[in-house]
Design goal:
Blueprint: E1 7-21, E2 24-30, E3 45-50, H1 66-72, E4 80-90, E5 95-101, H2 108-115, E6 121-127, E7 149-154, H3 159-170, E8 177-184, E9 199-205, E10 215-217
Parallel strand pairs: 7-8, 8-9
Antiparallel strand pairs: 1-2, 1-6, 2-5, 3-4, 3-6, 4-5, 9-10
Bound molecules: flavin-adenine dinucleotide (FAD).
């Protein structure tokens, strides 16, 4: 049945976690509702709801008007909302991958990704596949036709979006020339990038940043 709203709240649980590097953790969220999720761009943003300050997992009601209801919850019981990027969606399997930057225990989302165990519930505000509009928003990657040159500059939190964009461009018959600068915490946080003659990636290592830059990796 077609949906009237582009986004909705999905119930999911943490299925598994996989360390991609010392500071990047892939978290796979899953559940029957995720079969109805959509992603409309390689930088599709979503909202994740983490346990409230007092510790209980998010159990936001579904349906229209959720944000007003969310705002009416007392702060101590209100689930914390953070913005993340869909890295991969396997809707037919009811699974979605989110890559978390682990920046320590100070941020509750980072802390959740470090400590959460399989089966932990979470809610996701994400695109609804039943919504028919072409551009339902939630992403900024709208390249011109026949893109020829692309400059990318990101920190680690935008790496999921940037790598998704590189995957998309690598599949083109004639990919553009791309120069990318990715800032990460350590040398071991430099992730594999798609092969391609027109792609030059420079990993800027925060620990060791100097005037001469980081490590080139093409
Ligand atoms: C469109 C969009 C897409 C995003 N996609 C992703 C994504 O896919 N993966 C991802 O990991 N993040 C992503 N982010 C960033 C993420 O929303 C923030 O890093 C978020 O604030 C983390 O929440 P937290 O609860 O861990 O920390 P917060 O409670 O927000 O912050 C707590 C403390 O941690 C510090 N802090 C927060 N983030 C970082 C960081 N990255 N490095 C160092 N210190 C930090 C803050 O300055 C603060 O002092 C995205 C942001 C946007 C706007």
């Amino acid at each position: 049945m077609a949906s009237a709203t582009p986004y909705k709240i999905f119930d999911a649980v943490l299925r598994h976690k996989k360390a991609l590097s010392p500071h990047l953790m892939r978290v796979t969220l899953a559940g029957p509702m995720v079969t109805e999720m959509a992603t409309r761009a390689p930088n599709q943003r979503v909202k994740l709801f983490f346990p409230a300050v007092e510790g209980s997992p998010a159990r936001l009601a579904h349906g229209d008007g959720w944000y007003a209801r969310y705002r009416s919850i007392p702060v101590a019981q209100r689930p914390a909302m953070r913005t993340y990027t869909i890295r991969h969606l396997r809707a037919e399997q009811g699974e979605v991958d989110i890559d978390f930057v682990l920046h320590g225990e100070t941020g509750l989302a980072s802390r959740w990704a470090i400590h959460a165990a399989a089966g932990e519930p979470i809610q996701i505000f994400a695109p609804d596949s039943q919504f028919s509009a072409q551009d339902a928003g939630g992403f900024e990657w709208k390249p011109p036709q026949q893109l020829k040159h692309l400059l990318m500059v990101t920190d680690a939190t935008a790496l999921p979006a940037a790598l998704g964009i590189l995957d998309e461009l690598a599949a083109l018959a004639v990919p553009p020339l791309i120069q990318a600068f990715f800032e990460v915490d350590s040398v071991d946080d430099a992730l594999p990038v798609p092969d391609g003659p027109g792609l030059a990636v420079e990993w800027l290592i925060r620990d060791h940043a100097t005037a001469t830059g980081g490590c080139a990796n093409t």
